[in-house]
């Protein structure tokens, strides 16, 4: 008889030694189909042998078959070795910059190829790299009086993306919130929620229409009987829009800005 235990050996990417038990009452020899596994040439009867395996320097897992043979009998086991784990780390975790256009560097430490992307149109980054290096983040001038932030994702195979951020301070030039005609819109810019405030005694009814920069009408609303009206525009994309406010005697036009 001839049998082996275990029939499956699983190891990490590092070089090492595993043990196999051979149960037999005959002389037997050993063999393998790969050059990174070695073991004693053979023995007789039941015995324990040491299986020596080399380091896997690839990111891809590999396997080899170990065969024990004798007197027209054979038994086999498979040794599975994991590949090198991909790694990536990025610093700093957040970069603070002023409102003017410019660029800033992030340090990437990695043992493999990586790709990078930003989630905002105003920020572009080095799209890819290999091993450790520098990721350059280039940003446009912030035209808004509110700070804004973008997330940068750096990805390697087999890992969740590493995320860092860039925070850009508010512009020194802002859009006026108050209106000398007695109507104010705030906050402006905002992330999509705007409040229109008007004196109801002076403006009992307002016909409000929102258009994009091409003049296409997006929203129409009659506002009456109150001093404050909330507009939820969170479904719209980032950018500038025009709010046309028609009163009994005038048409007031105001620019509003949505930021993300």
Question: Could you characterize the architecture of this molecule?
Answer:
This protein has 260 residues and is mainly beta. Helices cover 0% and strands 58% of the residues. It is built from no helices and 25 strands. A hairpin with a 4-residue loop joins strand 24 and strand 25. The relative contact order is 0.11.
- Taking pLDDT < 50 over at least 5 consecutive residues as the criterion, the unreliable ranges are 173-180
Q: How many individual β-strands?
A: 25
The helix tally amounts to 0
Query: For the residues shown, what is the average pLDDT?
Result: 91
The helix-strand sequence is EEEEEEEEEEEEEEEEEEEEEEEEE
Tell me the Rg in angstroms: 34 Å
Strand-pairing-aware structural class: mainly beta
Largest sheet: 5 strands, mixed
What is the helix content? under 10%
Strand coverage percent: over 45%
**Sheet with most strands: strand arrangement:** 2-9-8-4-6
Q: So what's the overall shape?
A: rod-shaped
Termini gap: 72 Å
Brief digest:
The chain is 0% helix and 58% strand. Strands 2-9-8-4-6 form a five-stranded mixed β-sheet, with no helix packed on it. The protein has no helices and 25 strands.
């Amino acid at each position: 008889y001839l049998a082996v235990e275990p029939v499956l050996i699983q190891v990490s990417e590092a070089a090492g030694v595993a043990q196999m038990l051979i149960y037999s009452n005959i002389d037997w020899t050993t063999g393998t189909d790969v050059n990174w596994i070695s073991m004693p040439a053979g023995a007789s009867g039941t015995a324990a042998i040491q299986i020596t395996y080399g380091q896997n320097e690839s990111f891809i897992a590999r396997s080899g078959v170990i065969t024990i043979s004798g007197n027209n009998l054979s038994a086999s086991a498979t040794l599975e070795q994991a590949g090198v784990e991909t790694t990536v780390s990025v610093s700093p975790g957040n970069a603070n910059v002023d409102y003017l256009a410019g660029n800033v560097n992030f340090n990437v430490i990695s043992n493999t190829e990586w790709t990078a992307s930003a989630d905002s149109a105003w920020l572009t980054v080095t799209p890819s790299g290999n091993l450790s290096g520098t990721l350059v983040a280039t940003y446009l001038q912030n035209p808004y009086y509110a700070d804004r932030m973008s997330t940068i994702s750096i990805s390697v195979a087999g890992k969740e993306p590493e995320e860092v951020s860039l925070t850009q301070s508010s512009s020194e030039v802002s859009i006026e919130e108050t209106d000398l005609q007695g109507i104010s819109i705030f906050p402006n810019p905002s992330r999509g929620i705007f409040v229109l405030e008007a004196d109801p005694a002076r403006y009992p009814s307002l016909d409000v229409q929102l258009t994009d920069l091409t003049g296409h009408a997006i929203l129409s609303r009659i506002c009456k009987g109150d001093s404050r009206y909330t507009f939820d525009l969170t479904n719209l994309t980032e950018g500038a829009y025009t709010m046309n406010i028609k009163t009994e005697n005038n048409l007031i036009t105001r620019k509003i800005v949505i930021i993300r």
